[in-house]
Amino acid sequence: MRGHLQHLWLHRGRVLVFFLIVHSCSIQAFAETKHHHHGKTAAKAEPFIISTDKPFDTLMYEAMDIMHRDMGTAEMDGGPDHDFVTMMIPHHQGAVDMAKILLIYGKDIELRNLAQRIITGQHSEIKIMQEWLTRHRSREIVKSEPFATLMEKANVSMHKDMGQAEKIGNPDHDFVTMMIPHHQGAVDMANVLLMYGKDLKLRILSQNIITEQQYEIQAMKAWLTAHQPTGPKSQDRVYTADQNSNTVSVINPATNMLLGQIRLGNMRPDVLSPLYKGELNVHGLGFSPDRKTLIAISTGSNSVTFIDTSTNKVKGITYVGRSPHEGFFTPDGKEAWVVVRSENYISVIDPKTYKEIRRIETTPGPGMVIFNPNGKYAYVCNSFNPVFEVIDVAQYKVIKKISVVSPFSPYLVMTPDYKEIWLTHKDVGKITRIDAEKLEIIGVFDTGFITNHIHFAKAPQGILAHVTIGGENAVKVFTTETVPKLITTISVGALPHGIWPSDDGSRMYIGLENSDAVDVIDTSLNKVVARIPVGQAPQALVYVSNAAPEGGGTINLAPRQTVPEPINIQLKATKGDARGFVVVRNMGLVDAFEVSVFKLKPDTIYKVYISGQKTPVALLKTNPKGMSNVTTIGPLRETITTVSPESPEPSQILVMEGDEVPDSNKAILLSVL
Length: 673
What we know:
It is built from 8 helices and 36 strands. It is an alpha+beta fold and about 675 residues long.
């Protein structure tokens, strides 16, 4: 491969390498600005400025935006030769800017050589084209509408392909995947010039572009083949937010081994003292664009904990409003936004000072916030109201609200091409799809009972959506076509919740809320290939590449506390379609007995009994949708010695309505033996 790239550089003196990148601004806007600037020169705009304070992807988007802007305002008079050159100058400057970004963040020596030669060659070619313009100011203009139409068509095609380019967060890889469709755009537009251009030097230049760019495309494809990710790396990490043990579990995905835990508080029930000062209900997770900082959101202590991923050490804690749920960093890494679910706002935090710097008002009950990679928009789902909101990031203001199918949406994510936002509806078992450009709902489809989180992975069939279905102990895999189709259902452990893929999409990691573990799915086989024990009741789960670039990554980690595995019991209706489940967790001398019921009578009191006992172990009241969840703590297990005259008998769980005495014949729900 190195020989191929070196061979290419020998031709740089006679080749115009045509770099075109169009960012995810609308092609319609591009066309409008292009046609509106015939015959006039726009005022000089600010140039692109590289700052090492910004991550790779943010700088790339900024460079593409500026190149797009300058192409749209280029002086054009309708003549193919002239307009070809005026468009190529900002193209080349964009190539220079992006090559400089690669030199800051790229590691591969061959690509760094490529970037340096791009800078040298493009500066020289910009000068040549500027001199051509100077020599050809006075000339007869022969306008060509077909030329303009085909050039625009080439730009639209390139825009689409670059938007769908695979990006995995590795600068070297992502630089190449964006350059391939960019080069193809150069070939297409050079062919257009050969069809309509008259200037002999430009026609020769265009032919050289076609020859050399096609060669470089093949070389970059060969580089990709040689450098394709081969699975999770030892520097990568999987983190789970463990709600009952108040820990963050840290997994090495290369070995599927638990490295240890970051203890943010005590395990339940050792959190009830008035002197307790640890974190409570560790629930949400997010990470910075540079992968150096993890945030853990605790719903009970109203806190956001900032953790150094290389040392597993807490850097700072921010206390916000009541019951924050999830959070993430802005694409430039300068702010952390955390939804405060029991309030009506998003808390904006400075990750350097750990201080809340502002609040963004939303509909009460914001459930999660994510960002479009362009940094312009944020998207918010809601846990208490049937609404999806769009925020202008620069203005810190909601600019659009969209009504959705249900009031409980705990999770949302963008498709890999950033064209859609998918949000789950836990209460009704559905997913809503929203067009990210038009900001309109384009579809709603059924998924299953207790639809929790969703993520995407690339497969031979295309991009597939993996959805955790908590009530079915399954991950369902759907196509992402106009009408999603169910590809397969993968059985996993109890109550799957969080989900995240490895960067290459070869593995999908599933947090099992009621199994206190993580299941690992091989996406090529659609089967579970490993189970990893973690803390109690894992909720959010994230995969963070290159989180521990040096060392073993075990510093400051505590071992997992050894406790018996949780017991999961299904509840079945004696009649009707009600359902439920119970999980029993041992906490030393006592047990946590958690009951979840669904599709019962609304606003009704029920009592939960264990057979042989006259006193209920739990009392619950359903909400208007007939749902309820309750946890009781106490001694539920009885120890019987081998010399005891008593023989153990399996207990049965009964859910009785109102003041009905425990009777399996009258029970609304019974445990499945």
